[in-house]
Structure formats: structure tokens, C-alpha cells
Amino acid sequence: MNIAGYLRRLGRPDLLDAPPTWEGLRALHTAHVERVPYEALDIWLERPTGIDPAESAARITGGRGGYCYHLNGAFSTLLARLGYDVTRHAGGVQSRGAEPGITRNHLALTARGLPAPGNPGGAWLVDLGLGDGPHEPLPLVAGSYRQGPFTYGLRPSEVAPGGWRFDHDPAGSFEGMDFAPEPAEMAEFEDMHRHLSTSPDSGFVRVAAVLRRDASGVDVLRGLVLTRQGAGAHSVTLDSARDYYAALGDVFGLTLDDVADAEKDRLWRRLRDAHEAWTAS
């Protein structure tokens, strides 16, 4: 892993030789969600990705993003290389109206040994892979936490004994997420990654979504509809390929330098056709 290159992508090369601290963890987390978008455009480009953390880190360093397996997988390795005590956990994101469970459709992280005011135990939920989820790590302490326009809850999980439950804000994109207490290996997520990348039932396959969190809200691009939630709320439909790719670059920092012009043309046509089918329905 190119640790120095990864930290440059985050705009925090100063943390390369810094000791593990709560302040350092918060700085890395906030920089990551602000600079590395939650995205699965490679599914729409028909370019399958793996979830090996080193591969994911190389994609991030090269200017791309990913979803939970990529983002949290790479970040956990970065943290470990920087000396943090970090653990991967099998989780389950609960869609609104669905049943909760540890489905392994999510990879969650915890970090420990980082005491801070309000969290003397020093354990934290670290999660870059929830799209409109936390901007900062959350104390692994039962309670309610306000970050920007969202209020999150943490409590013991009712479906994973010894695990934890993250409750999203009512305005969020999903109901909540449970994760199991024991450590998980990346191989445990391979089958679900394959399903999420290929199944017609997958939200990633149905809608090309890109999200970027900051301190005051979240930018969301679903298909061709660009929405801002929180400070400066607005919504606009992107009517041209030029506007779409400009938004990817300007709002989400995705220049897609790794995608050829012909691939971009095909992606735009797929997005336009999907948008027209959606509006017609």
C-alpha cells in the first residue's frame, strides 16, 4: 500500500508519522468522507472490482471511491499501518421496511485505545461506507449523536448479541445497521460483493449513486438527479453529459481519469436511458 500517496489523496500527508490519537482518527475520517466519494460507477461501466484492501487503496489513491467493502477495507489497512488498533466486523444495513440482520451486506470498523472527552473508554465506530452516514467517528457508547443535519443513535444490537446497532436519522437513506462483535475477514464478504455487483435486485445495479459527506450535509447524485441535503439544500436534474461529468468532478472530486472517452459515452447513454425509463414510469 502506498501510504504516503493515500494520505496525499486525503490532504493529510502530515499524519504519516503521527502517533495514533483520537484527534488523528477524527482528522483521517473526516478527510476521507469529504474527499473520497461513496460510489459504485464501475458496476455501470461493466468493470468488476475486487475487495482486496490493497486493490481498493490503489483505486482510492488513483482518484476513485467505492462502497463499504472498498472504503472501509482500505481505510482499516491504512489505520493499521499507521499504528491504530482497528477491527473489521460483519454488518447488515437495514433498508426501510426490511428486517434487521447480519447479512454481510456491510463491512463495519471499530477502533480502540483512543480515549477522548466524553469517551474515556476510547472505543469508536469508524464507518466511511454508509453514504450519508457519520462525518466523524462515533463513540462506541449508547446514546444519541448530532452531526450536521442528521441525528444518529447507537445502542446494543438486538440481532447480534454483544454487537452494536447504528440507528440512522429518519431523513437518512436507510433504517439502520447492526454489526457483530467478533472480527471478520475480507473473504467473508466476497459472495455478497458479487451479489451486490451483479444482481438485478441490487441497489447498486438499479441506480448509479454517488454520495459525499461533509460537516454540514451530504451531496447525493442518483442517476441524473443531483441533490444537496443539509446546508444549501437543492435538487437539479443534469441534462447533458457535460453537466454530469462536471458535477462528478466539481462536487465529488471524481475526474474519472481511469475511464476512456468511449466508456464515458456509453455510461452517459446508460444513465440517460435509465433516467428516461424512470421518468416515464
From TrEMBL:
Pfam families: Acetyltransf_2
SUPFAM superfamilies reported in the protein's UniProt record: Cysteine proteinases (SSF54001)
Superkingdom of source: Bacteria
Single Gene Ontology MF annotation: acetyltransferase activity
Keywords linked to the UniProt accession: Transferase
InterPro entries the record matches: Arylamine_N-AcTrfase, Papain-like_cys_pep_sf
Gene3D superfamilies in UniProt: Arylamine N-acetyltransferase, Cysteine proteinases
Name the record gives this protein: Arylamine N-acetyltransferase
